[in-house]
Design goal:
- The protein is mainly alpha-helical.
- It contains four helices and no strands.
- It is flat and about 40 Å long.
- 23% of the residues are buried.
C-alpha cells in the first residue's frame, strides 16, 4: 500500500496524501514518522480533506490532554 499511496500522492491525489499519512503514522511499509504523517495530513486538510482535518483535531486533543496530565 505504501508504494501505491506514494505514487498517487506524487500525482497530487488528495486521498492518497491522506492515506500516506497513515502509513507513516502506523509504520505500514515504512518506518513510523509522526512528523511526516502530520505534514501529509496538514497538506490534505488544507485542501479540504475532512478525514485529515479530523485526524489533526484528534491528535491535537490527545497532545493537549497529555500536556495537561504532566
Amino acid at each position: 500500500a505504501f508504494d501505491y499511496y506514494t505514487q498517487a500522492a506524487n500525482k497530487d491525489i488528495l486521498e492518497a496524501i491522506y492515506q500516506l499519512g497513515f502509513c507513516y503514522c502506523l509504520g505500514k511499509g515504512v518506518k513510523a514518522d509522526l512528523k511526516k504523517a502530520v505534514g501529509l495530513w496538514m497538506k490534505a486538510a488544507d485542501r479540504g480533506h475532512k478525514g485529515a482535518q479530523e485526524c489533526l483535531v484528534k491528535l491535537n486533543e490527545l497532545v493537549s490532554h497529555n500536556q495537561d496530565n504532566e
